[in-house]
Specification:
signal, 9-stranded mixed β-sheet, single chain, AB_hydrolase_fold, Lipase_secreted, Lipase family protein
Length: 378
């Protein structure tokens, strides 16, 4: 897609950059996306964009879920204070469920919902990078592989690589923090970071109410599952998982596992943002999505492989925080994950708070800042 720039092309590119500077237009760095983490473009946003004072959008290459590379995007936020010696430490923020369509990422929303937490990171003197995740950026060529462990991690690590190429003031030292789907992504990132990007100095992981264990339940469903309100709130996310699995595993007959209603819901979820999920589902039950058991034709096993949180292989500190009254990701899910990780020999700090899913970021805020600060001070 991108040719090697010839000598004449380099001259033309330089001239265009000069024209852009003279005209007052922010220059955009360009590079070919042959390798994961390669910077494609870096576009500064005007002060006040999304209420951020120093924000930019980074486009970069990352692993495609079916092989090769693809293009994605993320935010780069810088503190107002000058960079310290050695550069700004970097916090990668992994956001919660936002949907599956190319209009559902942080580069579209300007991270408005995340502003209090991300601003607190900036106030500590840390830079913030935040991936849209694969498929959530404008112009994406794939459905977002919702809760796909591998691509969440690679999208996060590669945006850190690209941000450092775009902004020389960033330190190689970085940590990852995420909530809900982002907690799932943060754990996936922490597990992969040292091996995938050994040139960086990865320090550790914070996961707030991470989504986990759902694959153990949903991968074993069949059409006879009764219509129960307590579990049918999972219909939209379940459809999103199936849309992602279908996109990443074209060799599987995911559609053959779905009923006609199920195919309709999964197709619609694949082009929806999270606030549209209820309207798309329109009262369908989990069982109504299926024509045959999930375990048939290997679909259930594939879903477990697709989204399971690793329990071993972590090399840096981990903090998991969860609310006791969380009804979106119930506390027993994380307690089960903790048991699995600790049984496997993985050391994890755990903090429990009284609130629910929406309160965990605020309730754990001081602990998170202290934990991340300790990682960077180590």
């Amino acid at each position: 897609m991108y040719d090697v720039i010839s000598k004449a092309g380099r001259v033309l590119a330089g001239a265009l950059t000069l024209v852009a500077v003279v005209a007052g237009v922010p220059a955009t760095a360009q590079a070919a996306p042959e390798h994961p983490g390669r910077l494609v473009s870096h576009t500064a946003q005007p002060p006040g964009w999304g209420e951020w004072s120093r924000a930019s959008i980074v486009e970069y290459s990352t692993e495609a879920a079916t092989g090769g590379t693809t293009k994605s995007a993320g935010l780069l936020l810088l503190p107002d204070a000058p960079a310290p010696e050695g550069g700004y430490p970097v916090v990668a923020w992994d956001h919660g469920t936002s949907g599956l369509a190319p209009r559902c990422g942080l580069t579209t929303s300007k991270a408005a919902r995340e502003r209090p937490l991300l601003q607190s990171f900036l106030d500590q003197g840390w830079a913030v990078v935040a991936p849209d995740y694969l498929g959530l950026s404008a112009g994406a060529d794939t459905v977002h592989p919702y809760l796909h462990t591998r691509s969440e991690a690679t999208a996060t690590i590669d945006v850190v690589r690209a941000a450092r190429a775009a902004e020389p003031s960033l330190s190689p030292s970085w940590s990852v923090v995420g909530g809900s789907q982002g907690g799932h992504a943060a754990l996936a990132t922490g597990n992969l970071a040292a091996d995938y990007a050994p040139e960086l100095d990865f320090r550790g992981t914070v996961a707030l109410a991470p989504e986990s264990q759902f694959e153990q339940i949903l991968s074993r469903l069949d059409p006879k599952v009764p219509n129960l309100p307590v579990v049918d709130r999972l219909v939209g996310p379940f459809a999103g998982m199936l849309a992602g699995l279908r996109a990443t595993r074209p060799d599987l007959d995911v559609n053959g596992t779905l009923s006609a209603r199920g195919r309709q819901v999964v197709d619609a979820i694949a082009t929806s943002c999270v606030h549209e999920f209820d309207a798309v589902v329109d009262g369908a039950s989990l069982g109504a999505l299926l024509a045959r058991p999930m375990e048939s034709a290997g679909v259930g096993a594939a879903l477990r492989d697709y989204m399971m949180v690793p329990t071993v292989g972590y090399r840096q500190p981990i903090l998991i925080a969860h609310g006791a009254t969380d009804m979106v990701v119930p506390l027993p899910m994380t307690l089960a994950l903790l048991g699995q990780m600790r049984s496997a020999g993985t050391e994890v700090e755990f903090a429990q708070y009284p609130g629910g899913h929406e309160q965990i970021a605020a309730e754990s805020h001081r602990r998170v800042l202290d934990f991340v600060g300790g990682l960077f001070a180590a």
